[in-house]
């Protein structure tokens, strides 16, 4: 269990941060994932494709956590303002100045992609194969490859401009 | 499959870049690429887009993650606390409460420390120098690694590796036999590493050398039998781990069909 934790913790945490979660929230979700894995194995369930399994649980928990954060912000603040503040991962103006123009365009394209398409890219960046991404996001294999191809085509166009 | 006049789609090119094509499709696609400059150029653009995405992704996640040691210790503490509290006849691991939070984990660490302290100060002291044939399930519930049956069965060396002295002392302390002669005990693995047992204090116990009936030699015979059954497919690995962790003597009686150790054990 600890060996698996060592193997996946950083990758899971990075993926969770892409949901706009803070590091403490992300760490907490990672702990929940591994306790769920503990239960899963204790019940004698499948040990096949544990990488896909932990990412799927992390994905679902992250959605739940983000929803809770949004709800609490909606209650505490004016509609819209605080929510964007909490989940917008855009770089600050100083960072934007440092980034090249191409990178800014790519960042803008990435931000404008549908959530599911961005999730495909993020999961692929963490080393998941297409079959595992399909499992995590509950998509077909064809839909994963199509989504990635479309997203990358958009990014390629943005880089050319 | 693909003709020179009908160019490859981005999806097909990406599948090739990613190594996700079948061998047959890959061969056909390569034949097309050799003849088609346009598709080759497009393939390079896709690879460029991947590189661009990675740069953006890394710059947006330009955060230094906290060291793993703290979260790892937190997880271990919680698992250890749960394992230590496992009921004797329960399975190796038992269900955990949902909605785990850092505060709960911190409390778990505290409870674990308190539990161990109470164990030392409490009735454990009457175990001092006692003959121990069966581990205390509260202290040694057993712990196993996540290994598959093929991995277990492919091990050539099934001898248990020596337990470090520091860990042996911790085991003696937990069992309240610090005053006893250490050489009177073998610190033994409850689930043998040959069956996927972990090198963890919750899988270690002091087996008395003076145990005349249910001694270490008898347990070795059981371990060999279980491993043989796991590897020939007649017993599930998890089941073997659970049986030996729950009550190794009962497991011996079950698998050797006897109420006492066989004469050659």
Summarize the structure.
With 161 residues, chain A is an all-alpha fold. Chain A is built from 9 helices and no strands.
Topology, element by element:
The complex is a heterodimer of chains A (161) and B (265).
Chain A: H1 2-17, H2 23-42, H3 50-76, H4 81-87, H5 93-98, H6 101-112, H7 115-125, H8 130-137, H9 141-160
Chain B: H1 10-17, H2 23-35, H3 37-60, H4 69-84, H5 102-121, H6 149-153, H7 165-174, E1 185-189, E2 204-208, H8 216-231, H9 237-246, H10 248-256
Helix pairs in contact in B: 1-3, 4-5, 8-10, 9-10
User: CATH topology of the largest domain in chain A, which one?
Assistant: Rna Polymerase Sigma Factor, Chain: A
Main β-sheet, spatial strand arrangement of chain B? 1-2
Identify the CATH architecture of the largest domain in chain A. Answer: Orthogonal Bundle
Q: Report the count of strand segments of chain B.
A: 2
Task: Kindly report the average pLDDT value of chain B.
Answer: 77
Rg for CA atoms of chain A:
17 Å
- Basic shape of chain A: globular
Mean pLDDT of chain A: 83
Helical content of chain B stands at 40-55%
* % residues in beta strands of chain A: under 5%
Percent of residues of chain A in helical segments?
over 70%
Shape of chain B: elongated
Structural class of chain B: mainly alpha
Distance between the termini of chain A: 48 Å
Biggest sheet statistics of chain B: 2 strands, antiparallel
- Return the string of H and E elements of chain B: HHHHHHHEEHHH
Beta strands of chain A, count: 0
* Poorly predicted runs of chain B: 86-109, 111-129
Descriptive account of the structure:
The complex is a heterodimer of chains A (161) and B (265). In chain A, 79% of the residues lie in helices and 0% in strands. Chain A has two domains: 1-89, Rna Polymerase Sigma Factor, Chain: A (Orthogonal Bundle); 91-161, Arc Repressor Mutant, subunit A, CATH 1.10.10.10. In chain A, helix 3 (50-76) packs antiparallel against helix 4 (81-87) and helix 6 (101-112) runs antiparallel to helix 9 (141-160). Residues 79-89 of chain A have low confidence and may be disordered. Chain A has helices at 2-17, 23-42, 50-76, 81-87, 93-98, 101-112, 115-125, 130-137, 141-160. With 161 residues, chain A is mainly alpha-helical. Chain A is built from nine helices and no strands. Chain B has 265 residues and is mainly alpha-helical. Chain B is 49% helix and 4% strand. Chain B contains ten helices and two strands, in the order αααααααββααα. In chain B, strands 1-2 form a two-stranded antiparallel ribbon. The N and C termini of chain B lie far apart (67 Å). Chains A and B meet through helix 1, helix 2, helix 6, helix 7 and helix 9 of A and helix 1, helix 3 and helix 4 of B.
């Amino acid at each position: 269990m600890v060996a698996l934790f060592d193997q996946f913790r950083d990758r899971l945490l990075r993926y969770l941060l892409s949901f706009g979660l803070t590091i403490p929230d992300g760490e907490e979700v990672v702990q929940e994932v591994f306790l769920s894995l503990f239960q899963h194995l204790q019940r004698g369930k499948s040990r096949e494709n544990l990488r896909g399994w932990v990412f799927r649980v992390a994905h679902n928990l992250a959605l739940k956590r983000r929803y809770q954060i949004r709800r609490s912000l909606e209650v505490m603040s004016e509609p819209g303002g605080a929510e964007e503040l909490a989940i917008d991962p855009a770089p600050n103006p100083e960072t934007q100045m440092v980034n090249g123009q191409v990178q800014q365009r790519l960042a803008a394209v990435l931000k404008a992609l549908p959530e599911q398409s961005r999730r495909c890219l993020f999961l692929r960046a963490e080393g998941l194969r297409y079959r595992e991404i399909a499992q995590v996001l509950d998509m077909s294999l064809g839909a994963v490859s199509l989504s990635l191809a479309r997203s990358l085509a958009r990014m390629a166009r943005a880089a050319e401009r | 499959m693909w003709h020179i006049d009908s160019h490859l789609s981005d999806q097909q090119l990406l599948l090739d870049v990613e190594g996700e094509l079948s061998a047959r499709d890959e061969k056909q696609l390569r034949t097309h690429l050799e003849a088609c400059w346009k598709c080759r150029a497009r393939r390079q653009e896709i690879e460029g887009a991947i590189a661009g995405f990675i740069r953006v992704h890394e710059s947006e996640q330009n955060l230094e993650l906290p060291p793993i040691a703290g979260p790892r210790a937190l997880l271990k503490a919680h698992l250890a606390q749960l394992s230590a509290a496992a009921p004797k006849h329960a399975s190796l691991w038992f269900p955990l409460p949902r909605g785990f939070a850092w505060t709960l984990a911190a409390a778990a660490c505290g409870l674990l420390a308190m539990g161990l302290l109470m164990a030392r100060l409490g009735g454990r002291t009457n175990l001092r120098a006692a003959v121990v044939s069966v581990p205390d399930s509260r202290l040694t519930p057993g712990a196993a690694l996540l290994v598959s049956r093929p991995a277990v069965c492919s091990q050539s060396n099934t001898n248990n590796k020596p337990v470090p002295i520091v860990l042996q002392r911790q085991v003696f302390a937990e069992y309240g036999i610090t005053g006893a002669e250490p050489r009177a005990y073998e610190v033994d693995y409850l689930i043998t590493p040959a069956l996927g047992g972990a090198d963890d204090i919750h899988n270690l116990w002091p087996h008395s050398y003076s145990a005349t009936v249910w001694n270490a030699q008898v347990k070795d015979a059981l371990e060999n039998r279980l491993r043989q059954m796991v590897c020939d497919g007649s017993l599930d690995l998890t089941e073997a781990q659970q049986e030996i962790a729950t009550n190794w003597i009962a497991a011996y009686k079950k698998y050797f069909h006897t109420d006492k150790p066989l004469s050659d054990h």
